[in-house]
Protein backbone atom coordinates (compact mmCIF):
# COMPACT_ATOMS: atom_id res chain seq x y z
CA UNK A 1 0.00 0.00 0.00
CA UNK A 2 1.35 3.41 -1.02
CA UNK A 3 1.55 6.26 1.52
CA UNK A 4 -0.50 9.38 0.70
CA UNK A 5 1.54 12.61 0.67
CA UNK A 6 -0.43 15.68 1.72
CA UNK A 7 1.11 18.45 3.78
CA UNK A 8 4.35 20.43 3.78
CA UNK A 9 6.11 18.20 6.35
CA UNK A 10 5.25 15.13 4.31
CA UNK A 11 6.39 16.86 1.16
CA UNK A 12 9.72 17.76 2.80
CA UNK A 13 10.09 14.12 3.86
CA UNK A 14 9.37 13.07 0.29
CA UNK A 15 12.01 15.48 -1.06
CA UNK A 16 14.52 13.99 1.38
CA UNK A 17 13.77 10.47 0.20
CA UNK A 18 13.71 11.46 -3.45
CA UNK A 19 17.17 13.05 -3.28
CA UNK A 20 18.48 10.11 -1.30
CA UNK A 21 17.20 7.58 -3.85
CA UNK A 22 18.77 9.48 -6.75
CA UNK A 23 22.07 9.74 -4.90
CA UNK A 24 21.88 6.05 -4.00
CA UNK A 25 21.40 5.04 -7.65
CA UNK A 26 24.21 7.29 -8.85
CA UNK A 27 26.72 5.58 -6.55
CA UNK A 28 25.17 2.12 -7.01
CA UNK A 29 25.46 2.27 -10.80
CA UNK A 30 28.91 3.81 -10.75
CA UNK A 31 30.09 0.83 -8.70
CA UNK A 32 28.45 -1.54 -11.21
CA UNK A 33 30.02 0.22 -14.21
CA UNK A 34 33.42 0.21 -12.49
CA UNK A 35 33.26 -3.55 -11.96
CA UNK A 36 33.39 -3.10 -8.17
CA UNK A 37 31.36 -6.27 -7.66
CA UNK A 38 31.71 -6.62 -3.91
CA UNK A 39 30.92 -2.99 -3.09
CA UNK A 40 27.99 -3.11 -5.51
CA UNK A 41 26.65 -6.29 -3.91
CA UNK A 42 26.80 -4.54 -0.52
CA UNK A 43 24.17 -2.09 -1.77
CA UNK A 44 21.75 -5.05 -1.78
CA UNK A 45 20.38 -6.64 1.40
CA UNK A 46 22.22 -9.86 2.35
CA UNK A 47 19.35 -11.84 0.80
CA UNK A 48 18.87 -9.34 -2.04
CA UNK A 49 17.45 -10.63 -5.33
CA UNK A 50 18.10 -9.36 -8.84
CA UNK A 51 15.83 -10.70 -11.57
CA UNK A 52 17.44 -9.53 -14.82
CA UNK A 53 15.75 -10.10 -18.16
CA UNK A 54 18.66 -12.07 -19.57
CA UNK A 55 19.33 -14.57 -16.74
CA UNK A 56 17.46 -17.88 -16.67
CA UNK A 57 16.64 -17.40 -12.97
CA UNK A 58 16.98 -14.59 -10.38
CA UNK A 59 20.39 -13.98 -8.81
CA UNK A 60 20.17 -14.11 -5.00
CA UNK A 61 22.63 -13.10 -2.29
CA UNK A 62 25.67 -10.87 -2.30
CA UNK A 63 28.24 -13.48 -3.30
CA UNK A 64 26.32 -14.38 -6.46
CA UNK A 65 25.59 -10.72 -7.23
CA UNK A 66 29.27 -9.77 -6.88
CA UNK A 67 30.43 -12.71 -8.98
CA UNK A 68 28.00 -11.79 -11.77
CA UNK A 69 29.30 -8.23 -11.95
CA UNK A 70 32.92 -9.26 -11.88
CA UNK A 71 32.41 -11.75 -14.70
CA UNK A 72 30.44 -9.28 -16.83
CA UNK A 73 33.06 -6.60 -16.26
CA UNK A 74 35.91 -8.91 -17.21
CA UNK A 75 34.08 -9.80 -20.45
CA UNK A 76 33.54 -6.12 -21.28
CA UNK A 77 37.18 -5.31 -20.56
CA UNK A 78 38.23 -8.16 -22.85
CA UNK A 79 35.93 -6.76 -25.52
CA UNK A 80 37.17 -3.18 -24.94
CA UNK A 81 33.75 -1.79 -24.09
CA UNK A 82 32.57 0.52 -21.31
CA UNK A 83 28.94 0.28 -20.20
CA UNK A 84 27.05 2.96 -18.26
CA UNK A 85 23.78 2.23 -16.52
CA UNK A 86 21.58 5.30 -16.08
CA UNK A 87 18.48 5.04 -13.89
CA UNK A 88 16.30 7.93 -14.99
CA UNK A 89 12.71 9.18 -14.60
CA UNK A 90 12.65 7.78 -11.07
CA UNK A 91 9.18 7.18 -9.59
CA UNK A 92 9.40 6.69 -5.80
CA UNK A 93 6.40 5.42 -3.87
CA UNK A 94 6.93 5.09 -0.08
CA UNK A 95 5.09 2.02 1.22
CA UNK A 96 3.26 1.53 4.53
CA UNK A 97 5.92 -0.98 5.68
CA UNK A 98 8.66 1.64 5.30
CA UNK A 99 10.04 0.21 2.08
CA UNK A 100 10.18 2.18 -1.17
CA UNK A 101 8.72 0.93 -4.44
CA UNK A 102 10.83 2.55 -7.14
CA UNK A 103 10.23 2.31 -10.86
CA UNK A 104 12.68 3.86 -13.27
CA UNK A 105 13.76 3.91 -16.89
CA UNK A 106 17.14 2.25 -17.24
CA UNK A 107 19.32 3.19 -20.16
CA UNK A 108 22.49 1.26 -20.87
CA UNK A 109 25.00 3.15 -23.01
CA UNK A 110 27.84 1.09 -24.48
CA UNK A 111 31.02 2.70 -25.78
CA UNK A 112 33.67 0.65 -27.57
CA UNK A 113 37.26 1.81 -27.15
CA UNK A 114 37.93 4.27 -29.96
CA UNK A 115 34.34 4.05 -31.20
CA UNK A 116 30.94 5.73 -30.99
CA UNK A 117 28.57 5.20 -28.07
CA UNK A 118 25.22 3.55 -28.67
CA UNK A 119 22.07 2.93 -26.65
CA UNK A 120 22.65 -0.74 -25.91
CA UNK A 121 19.44 -1.46 -24.00
CA UNK A 122 16.36 0.40 -22.80
CA UNK A 123 14.75 -1.20 -19.75
CA UNK A 124 12.29 -0.57 -16.96
CA UNK A 125 13.56 -1.30 -13.44
CA UNK A 126 11.24 -2.16 -10.55
CA UNK A 127 13.05 -2.00 -7.20
CA UNK A 128 12.08 -2.54 -3.60
CA UNK A 129 14.43 -0.46 -1.44
CA UNK A 130 14.70 -0.88 2.33
CA UNK A 131 16.95 0.59 5.04
CA UNK A 132 19.63 -1.15 7.08
CA UNK A 133 20.12 -0.56 10.84
CA UNK A 134 22.06 2.64 10.06
CA UNK A 135 19.30 3.98 7.84
CA UNK A 136 21.16 3.42 4.58
CA UNK A 137 19.19 2.36 1.51
CA UNK A 138 19.64 -1.14 0.12
CA UNK A 139 18.01 -3.02 -2.76
CA UNK A 140 15.94 -5.94 -1.47
CA UNK A 141 14.49 -6.90 -4.82
CA UNK A 142 15.03 -5.80 -8.41
CA UNK A 143 13.09 -6.84 -11.48
CA UNK A 144 14.04 -5.54 -14.91
CA UNK A 145 12.16 -5.71 -18.20
CA UNK A 146 13.69 -4.99 -21.62
CA UNK A 147 11.89 -2.88 -24.19
CA UNK A 148 13.07 -5.11 -27.04
CA UNK A 149 11.30 -8.11 -25.48
CA UNK A 150 7.75 -7.01 -24.76
CA UNK B 1 8.12 36.93 -13.16
CA UNK B 2 10.42 34.42 -11.50
CA UNK B 3 10.58 34.18 -7.69
CA UNK B 4 13.98 34.86 -6.11
CA UNK B 5 15.25 32.07 -3.85
CA UNK B 6 17.39 33.27 -0.96
CA UNK B 7 17.24 31.68 2.46
CA UNK B 8 17.17 28.15 3.89
CA UNK B 9 13.36 27.99 4.19
CA UNK B 10 13.02 29.05 0.56
CA UNK B 11 15.67 26.56 -0.46
CA UNK B 12 13.81 23.77 1.36
CA UNK B 13 10.62 24.83 -0.43
CA UNK B 14 12.50 24.71 -3.71
CA UNK B 15 13.81 21.21 -2.96
CA UNK B 16 10.23 20.09 -2.24
CA UNK B 17 9.01 21.46 -5.54
CA UNK B 18 11.98 20.12 -7.47
CA UNK B 19 11.46 16.56 -6.20
CA UNK B 20 7.74 16.83 -6.83
CA UNK B 21 8.25 17.97 -10.42
CA UNK B 22 10.66 15.11 -11.16
CA UNK B 23 8.26 12.59 -9.61
CA UNK B 24 5.37 14.12 -11.56
CA UNK B 25 7.21 13.76 -14.87
CA UNK B 26 8.27 10.18 -14.12
CA UNK B 27 4.65 9.10 -13.64
CA UNK B 28 3.34 11.36 -16.41
CA UNK B 29 5.70 9.93 -19.01
CA UNK B 30 5.21 6.35 -17.85
CA UNK B 31 1.47 6.78 -18.47
CA UNK B 32 2.22 8.19 -21.93
CA UNK B 33 4.59 5.37 -22.84
CA UNK B 34 2.07 2.79 -21.57
CA UNK B 35 -0.65 4.21 -23.83
CA UNK B 36 -2.80 5.11 -20.80
CA UNK B 37 -4.33 8.04 -22.68
CA UNK B 38 -7.07 8.96 -20.25
CA UNK B 39 -4.87 8.85 -17.13
CA UNK B 40 -2.21 10.81 -18.98
CA UNK B 41 -4.73 13.44 -20.08
CA UNK B 42 -5.78 13.83 -16.44
CA UNK B 43 -2.29 15.12 -15.64
CA UNK B 44 -3.20 18.17 -17.74
CA UNK B 45 -5.67 20.85 -16.61
CA UNK B 46 -9.11 20.40 -18.17
CA UNK B 47 -8.23 23.12 -20.70
CA UNK B 48 -4.61 21.96 -20.98
CA UNK B 49 -2.78 22.65 -24.22
CA UNK B 50 0.00 20.62 -25.83
CA UNK B 51 1.81 22.24 -28.75
CA UNK B 52 3.93 19.44 -30.21
CA UNK B 53 6.37 20.14 -33.03
CA UNK B 54 4.77 17.66 -35.38
CA UNK B 55 1.08 18.66 -35.11
CA UNK B 56 -0.33 21.33 -37.42
CA UNK B 57 -2.01 23.04 -34.43
CA UNK B 58 -1.96 22.71 -30.61
CA UNK B 59 -4.00 19.89 -29.03
CA UNK B 60 -6.38 21.30 -26.39
CA UNK B 61 -8.46 19.61 -23.73
CA UNK B 62 -8.30 16.17 -22.15
CA UNK B 63 -10.45 14.31 -24.66
CA UNK B 64 -8.24 15.36 -27.56
CA UNK B 65 -5.06 14.71 -25.56
CA UNK B 66 -6.22 11.19 -24.61
CA UNK B 67 -7.29 10.37 -28.14
CA UNK B 68 -3.91 11.46 -29.52
CA UNK B 69 -2.03 9.19 -27.14
CA UNK B 70 -4.27 6.22 -27.78
CA UNK B 71 -3.88 6.55 -31.53
CA UNK B 72 -0.11 6.97 -31.35
CA UNK B 73 0.18 3.99 -29.04
CA UNK B 74 -1.92 1.78 -31.30
CA UNK B 75 0.32 2.73 -34.25
CA UNK B 76 3.45 1.88 -32.27
CA UNK B 77 2.00 -1.44 -31.15
CA UNK B 78 1.14 -2.26 -34.77
CA UNK B 79 4.72 -1.37 -35.71
CA UNK B 80 6.15 -3.39 -32.78
CA UNK B 81 7.97 -0.43 -31.26
CA UNK B 82 8.21 0.81 -27.67
CA UNK B 83 8.87 4.50 -27.07
CA UNK B 84 10.22 6.03 -23.85
CA UNK B 85 10.00 9.74 -23.14
CA UNK B 86 12.65 10.97 -20.69
CA UNK B 87 12.39 14.51 -19.35
CA UNK B 88 15.89 15.31 -18.16
CA UNK B 89 17.95 18.32 -17.02
CA UNK B 90 14.85 19.85 -15.50
CA UNK B 91 14.99 23.63 -14.88
CA UNK B 92 12.18 24.71 -12.52
CA UNK B 93 11.39 28.41 -12.07
CA UNK B 94 8.57 29.17 -9.59
CA UNK B 95 6.53 32.13 -10.83
CA UNK B 96 4.87 34.94 -8.85
CA UNK B 97 1.39 33.61 -9.75
CA UNK B 98 2.20 30.23 -8.15
CA UNK B 99 2.73 28.42 -11.45
CA UNK B 100 5.99 26.73 -12.37
CA UNK B 101 7.85 27.44 -15.59
CA UNK B 102 9.73 24.23 -16.36
CA UNK B 103 12.18 23.71 -19.19
CA UNK B 104 13.66 20.30 -19.79
CA UNK B 105 15.54 18.23 -22.34
CA UNK B 106 13.25 15.53 -23.72
CA UNK B 107 14.80 12.40 -25.13
CA UNK B 108 12.65 9.88 -26.95
CA UNK B 109 14.18 6.41 -27.13
CA UNK B 110 12.57 3.98 -29.58
CA UNK B 111 13.11 0.23 -29.35
CA UNK B 112 11.79 -2.13 -32.03
CA UNK B 113 10.76 -5.58 -30.86
CA UNK B 114 13.85 -7.77 -31.16
CA UNK B 115 16.01 -4.81 -32.23
CA UNK B 116 18.40 -2.17 -30.94
CA UNK B 117 17.21 1.03 -29.25
CA UNK B 118 17.91 4.37 -30.88
CA UNK B 119 17.56 8.03 -29.90
CA UNK B 120 14.46 8.79 -31.94
CA UNK B 121 14.14 12.49 -31.11
CA UNK B 122 15.90 15.09 -29.00
CA UNK B 123 13.62 17.95 -27.94
CA UNK B 124 13.29 20.85 -25.53
CA UNK B 125 10.06 20.97 -23.53
CA UNK B 126 8.65 24.22 -22.08
CA UNK B 127 5.88 23.52 -19.57
CA UNK B 128 3.66 25.65 -17.38
CA UNK B 129 2.65 23.57 -14.38
CA UNK B 130 -0.11 24.59 -11.97
CA UNK B 131 -1.81 22.94 -8.98
CA UNK B 132 -5.36 21.63 -8.73
CA UNK B 133 -7.55 22.15 -5.62
CA UNK B 134 -5.80 19.21 -3.92
CA UNK B 135 -2.37 20.65 -4.59
CA UNK B 136 -1.45 18.12 -7.29
CA UNK B 137 0.62 19.31 -10.24
CA UNK B 138 -0.97 19.51 -13.68
CA UNK B 139 0.31 20.67 -17.06
CA UNK B 140 -1.52 23.79 -18.21
CA UNK B 141 0.59 24.39 -21.28
CA UNK B 142 3.33 22.47 -23.07
CA UNK B 143 5.41 23.62 -26.00
CA UNK B 144 8.02 21.34 -27.54
CA UNK B 145 10.78 22.11 -30.03
CA UNK B 146 12.76 19.48 -31.95
CA UNK B 147 16.52 19.70 -32.33
CA UNK B 148 16.36 18.42 -35.90
CA UNK B 149 14.18 21.39 -36.91
CA UNK B 150 15.92 24.50 -35.67
CA UNK C 1 37.08 14.78 3.40
CA UNK C 2 33.43 13.96 2.85
CA UNK C 3 30.78 15.02 5.39
CA UNK C 4 28.79 12.21 7.04
CA UNK C 5 25.01 12.56 6.71
CA UNK C 6 23.05 11.13 9.62
CA UNK C 7 19.91 12.75 10.95
CA UNK C 8 16.74 14.28 9.49
CA UNK C 9 18.05 17.87 9.55
CA UNK C 10 21.19 16.78 7.72
CA UNK C 11 19.10 14.81 5.27
CA UNK C 12 16.91 17.86 4.59
CA UNK C 13 20.07 19.90 4.03
CA UNK C 14 21.29 17.24 1.62
CA UNK C 15 17.98 17.31 -0.29
CA UNK C 16 18.30 21.09 -0.59
CA UNK C 17 21.79 20.82 -2.00
CA UNK C 18 20.89 17.93 -4.29
CA UNK C 19 17.98 19.81 -5.87
CA UNK C 20 20.11 22.92 -6.18
CA UNK C 21 22.91 21.05 -7.95
CA UNK C 22 20.51 19.48 -10.44
CA UNK C 23 18.90 22.85 -11.13
CA UNK C 24 22.34 24.44 -11.47
CA UNK C 25 23.42 21.88 -14.08
CA UNK C 26 20.18 22.20 -16.04
CA UNK C 27 20.70 25.94 -16.48
CA UNK C 28 24.49 25.64 -16.89
CA UNK C 29 24.19 23.12 -19.74
CA UNK C 30 21.33 24.96 -21.42
CA UNK C 31 23.58 28.03 -21.59
CA UNK C 32 26.37 25.91 -23.06
CA UNK C 33 24.10 24.31 -25.67
CA UNK C 34 22.70 27.73 -26.60
CA UNK C 35 26.19 29.08 -27.24
CA UNK C 36 25.77 31.69 -24.47
CA UNK C 37 29.50 31.65 -23.79
CA UNK C 38 29.71 34.60 -21.43
CA UNK C 39 26.75 33.59 -19.24
CA UNK C 40 28.07 30.04 -19.18
CA UNK C 41 31.54 31.22 -18.15
CA UNK C 42 29.94 33.17 -15.30
CA UNK C 43 28.80 29.87 -13.77
CA UNK C 44 32.50 29.16 -13.14
CA UNK C 45 34.56 30.96 -10.50
CA UNK C 46 36.71 33.74 -11.94
CA UNK C 47 39.70 31.38 -11.83
CA UNK C 48 37.59 28.35 -12.82
CA UNK C 49 39.33 25.51 -14.64
CA UNK C 50 37.86 23.10 -17.19
CA UNK C 51 40.00 20.10 -18.09
CA UNK C 52 38.21 18.55 -21.08
CA UNK C 53 39.41 15.27 -22.57
CA UNK C 54 39.95 16.75 -26.02
CA UNK C 55 41.98 19.87 -25.17
CA UNK C 56 45.77 19.68 -24.95
CA UNK C 57 45.71 21.60 -21.62
CA UNK C 58 43.06 22.83 -19.14
CA UNK C 59 41.09 25.95 -19.99
CA UNK C 60 41.35 28.51 -17.17
CA UNK C 61 39.43 31.71 -16.48
CA UNK C 62 36.13 33.04 -17.74
CA UNK C 63 37.42 34.77 -20.87
CA UNK C 64 39.01 31.58 -22.19
CA UNK C 65 35.96 29.51 -21.18
CA UNK C 66 33.58 31.86 -22.96
CA UNK C 67 35.73 32.00 -26.09
CA UNK C 68 35.87 28.21 -26.26
CA UNK C 69 32.10 27.88 -26.13
CA UNK C 70 31.52 30.60 -28.69
CA UNK C 71 33.95 29.01 -31.13
CA UNK C 72 32.51 25.52 -30.66
CA UNK C 73 28.99 26.84 -31.10
CA UNK C 74 29.88 28.70 -34.29
CA UNK C 75 31.40 25.51 -35.70
CA UNK C 76 28.28 23.51 -34.85
CA UNK C 77 26.03 26.13 -36.39
CA UNK C 78 28.15 26.04 -39.54
CA UNK C 79 27.78 22.26 -39.57
CA UNK C 80 24.03 22.45 -38.87
CA UNK C 81 24.24 20.40 -35.70
CA UNK C 82 22.66 20.91 -32.25
CA UNK C 83 24.41 19.39 -29.23
CA UNK C 84 22.81 18.72 -25.86
CA UNK C 85 24.87 18.04 -22.75
CA UNK C 86 23.01 16.01 -20.12
CA UNK C 87 24.58 15.62 -16.69
CA UNK C 88 22.86 12.56 -15.23
CA UNK C 89 23.24 10.16 -12.30
CA UNK C 90 24.59 12.97 -10.17
CA UNK C 91 26.60 11.94 -7.09
CA UNK C 92 26.99 14.87 -4.67
CA UNK C 93 29.45 14.64 -1.78
CA UNK C 94 29.56 17.72 0.48
CA UNK C 95 33.13 18.33 1.66
CA UNK C 96 34.39 19.60 5.02
CA UNK C 97 35.57 22.89 3.43
CA UNK C 98 32.02 23.63 2.21
CA UNK C 99 32.69 22.69 -1.40
CA UNK C 100 30.80 19.94 -3.22
CA UNK C 101 32.53 17.07 -5.00
CA UNK C 102 30.12 16.08 -7.78
CA UNK C 103 30.55 13.15 -10.12
CA UNK C 104 28.08 12.61 -12.94
CA UNK C 105 27.56 10.76 -16.17
CA UNK C 106 27.63 13.20 -19.07
CA UNK C 107 25.83 12.30 -22.25
CA UNK C 108 26.24 14.44 -25.35
CA UNK C 109 23.45 14.02 -27.88
CA UNK C 110 24.09 15.44 -31.36
CA UNK C 111 21.28 16.12 -33.82
CA UNK C 112 22.01 17.20 -37.39
CA UNK C 113 19.44 19.50 -39.00
CA UNK C 114 16.90 17.25 -40.70
CA UNK C 115 18.59 14.09 -39.37
CA UNK C 116 18.50 11.54 -36.57
CA UNK C 117 20.02 12.20 -33.15
CA UNK C 118 22.92 10.08 -31.95
CA UNK C 119 24.84 9.64 -28.71
CA UNK C 120 27.93 11.60 -29.65
CA UNK C 121 29.95 11.05 -26.47
CA UNK C 122 29.57 9.36 -23.13
CA UNK C 123 31.72 10.89 -20.41
CA UNK C 124 32.23 11.06 -16.66
CA UNK C 125 32.40 14.56 -15.17
CA UNK C 126 34.18 15.34 -11.90
CA UNK C 127 33.32 18.80 -10.60
CA UNK C 128 34.26 20.85 -7.58
CA UNK C 129 31.42 23.28 -6.89
CA UNK C 130 31.72 26.22 -4.50
CA UNK C 131 29.49 29.16 -3.54
CA UNK C 132 29.95 32.83 -4.30
CA UNK C 133 29.27 35.62 -1.75
CA UNK C 134 25.52 35.40 -2.57
CA UNK C 135 25.45 31.65 -2.01
CA UNK C 136 25.13 30.74 -5.69
CA UNK C 137 26.89 27.63 -6.95
CA UNK C 138 29.86 27.97 -9.28
CA UNK C 139 32.21 25.45 -10.87
CA UNK C 140 35.74 25.86 -9.51
CA UNK C 141 37.19 22.85 -11.27
CA UNK C 142 35.91 20.36 -13.86
CA UNK C 143 37.64 17.26 -15.13
CA UNK C 144 36.02 15.10 -17.80
CA UNK C 145 36.95 11.62 -19.01
CA UNK C 146 35.60 10.01 -22.20
CA UNK C 147 34.40 6.42 -22.27
CA UNK C 148 35.90 5.85 -25.72
CA UNK C 149 39.39 6.68 -24.39
CA UNK C 150 39.87 4.56 -21.31
From TrEMBL, chains A, B, C:
Pfam families assigned to the protein according to its UniProt record, in alphabetical order: SnoaL_4 (PF13577)
Domain SnoaL-like: 17-143
Protein name: Cylase
Alphabetized Gene3D superfamilies for the sequence: 3.10.450.50
SUPFAM superfamilies linked: NTF2-like
Annotated InterPro entries: NTF2-like_dom_sf, SnoaL-like
Organism: Micromonospora okii
Amino acid sequence: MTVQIDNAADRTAFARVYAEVQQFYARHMYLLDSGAGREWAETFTSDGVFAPPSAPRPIAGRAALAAGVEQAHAELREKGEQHRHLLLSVDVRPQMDGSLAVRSYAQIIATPRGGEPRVHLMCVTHDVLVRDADGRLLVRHRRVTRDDRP
